[in-house]
Amino acid sequence: MTDNERRRIFGLARELGINRDELHILVNGVTGCTSITELNKKQTYAVIRELDDRIKLSGKTVHKSSKPKKEETIVPGMITPNQKRYCWNMMYHLAELEPRETAVGERMCGAIGKILGITAVPEDPFKWVSFEQGRDLIEGLKRYVYSAEKKAIREGRLK
């Protein structure tokens, strides 16, 4: 669990008016873990999702960061923001199907290296990816997700 995820959990709990003891009870109910520090990525996201759902049910609005979103510039011939979003969505879906200790950004770099033969860094994995390579990356990620879904169905983890 990253510091930002931990802060998000405590911030959402504070917004709901949940104290630490109640938060630990909620975490135990959602994940079975007795401590927030024991949570893995999947469990962390489950707790955050539960807190978000409770905020929505209470009628409160989820406060977003006051920082303005960084506007993505479109560089002619390079991967588009829509292609990037699609790649990230598939990578997060893959991370749900096949949880690993490796961060999603590092897994994206690995996929870019394997599919395109480009060395990527987690800070900006798409820096050297062209538009055409973006299409190839999307197709490769689709194959990864399809294989992971078939494996999950075979193992009974997915219907």
Structural class of the helix and strand makeup?
mainly alpha
Helix content: 55-70%
Rg calc: 18 Å
Amino- and carboxy-terminal Cα gap = 28 Å
Q: How many DSSP E strands?
A: 0
Shape: globular
Overall structural domain count: 2
Give the mean pLDDT.
88
Write down the secondary-structure element order: HHHHHH
Number of helix segments? 6
Report the oligomer.
single chain
Low-confidence stretches: none
Q: What percent strand? A: under 5%
Which helices and strands appear, and what pairs or packs with what?
Layout: H1 3-16, H2 20-31, H3 41-58, H4 81-97, H5 104-116, H6 131-154
Write a structural description.
This protein has 159 residues and is mainly α. The protein folds into two domains: 3-58, no CATH class; 81-154, no CATH class. The chain contains six helices and no strands.
Question: Key terms for this structure?
Answer:
159 residues; mainly alpha; 2 domains; 6 helices; 0% strand; globular
In short:
By secondary structure, this protein is an all-alpha fold. 62% of the residues lie in helices and 0% in strands.
